[in-house]
Amino acid sequence: MYNIDTRKCALALVAQGRSLNSVSKQTGVSRAAIRSWKTRIDPLVRSGKPCPRCGDTPGLPDAPAAYAYLLGLYLGDGCVSAQRRDVYILRIVCADAWPGLIDACEAAIRSVRPDNSVFRVQRQGCVAVTAASKHWPCLFPQHGPGKKHDRRIVLEDWQQAIVSEHPWEFVQGLVHSDGCRVTNWATRLVRGVRKRYEYPRYFFTNVSDDIRQLYTDTLDTVGVEWKRANAKNISVAKRASVALMDAHVGPKY
């Protein structure tokens, strides 16, 4: 007998396109058992609470602040993949170096879809925080074929309303996915003596022009000064702006 966690892990690996043989070797579950689980109703997708975007009167997610953060993570390091029977997998990839970020990502997914299971799939150097639902395309209409930077990324009106209400959560999600807080240093002559001084700054790097624009537009609304470090990199280095970012975003942890 296999416990539910083992079943979830095996099905998650299969959902990523892995062969039954490789999943069997990694998990210790027989190929016959995995094949049997695939033919049953997917235990990772529960009917539970209805989707807030489906129906005659679409509404907003119940946890808009968590959604704003998750949207930022999705635009940076996330994807939605179609599976069988109209089931979709949301996958956010987080580096092993930031266990707090992994916990925050899982918490956000649970808040947005509390009736769906969330699980973690370990990869080399990172963890894929994953959940299955029939409604991820409803909640992330930016889903589409190909890479994000090869297609237009535009928020729908209801998404923009959430971001306008919770801008810092959105910025935090973007920074936690494709950003960082670093310490720069420089030297300066002081009374003939060259001294070194350090200062913190934030970077956000993304190939998509649209996603960078969403980031800088939101920084503008919260009063953060920024500049382009290069074609794909946004820098926040002014002391007051860094202080704002520290108060609301902070470094990865």
What tags apply to this protein structure?
253 residues; alpha+beta; Endonuclease I-creI; 4-stranded antiparallel β-sheet; 10 helices; globular
Question: Please, could you describe this protein's structure?
Answer:
- The protein is α+β, with helices and mostly antiparallel strands.
- Among the domains are: 1-40; 170-248, Roll (Endonuclease I-creI), CATH 3.10.28.10.
- It is built from 10 helices and 8 strands.
- It has helices spanning 4-15, 20-27, 31-39, 64-77, 99-112, 136-139, 157-165, 167-178, 209-221, 239-248; strands at 78-82, 88-95, 118-123, 126-133, 179-190, 193-205, 227-230, 233-236.
- The chain has a 4-stranded antiparallel sheet with strand order 1-2-4-3, sandwiched between helices. Strands 5-6-8-7 form a 4-stranded antiparallel sheet.
- Strand 3 (118-123) and strand 4 (126-133) form a beta hairpin.
- Helix 7 crosses helix 8 (167-178).
- The longest helix is centred in the first third of the chain and has 14 residues, at 64-77.
- The mean pLDDT is 88.
What is the fold-level CATH name, i.e. the topology of the domain at 170-248?
Answer: Endonuclease I-creI
CATH architecture of the domain at 170-248: Roll
Strand order of the largest sheet: 1-2-4-3
What Rg, in angstroms, do the CA atoms define?
Answer: 21 Å
What portion of residues belong to β-strands?
A: 15-25%
CATH class assignment of the domain at 170-248: Alpha Beta
* SSE run: HHHHEEHEEHHHEEHEEH
CATH superfamily descriptor of the domain at 170-248? Homing endonucleases
How many helices? The count is 10
Q: Termini, distance in Å?
A: 37 Å
Q: Any low-confidence stretches, pLDDT <50, length ≥5?
A: none
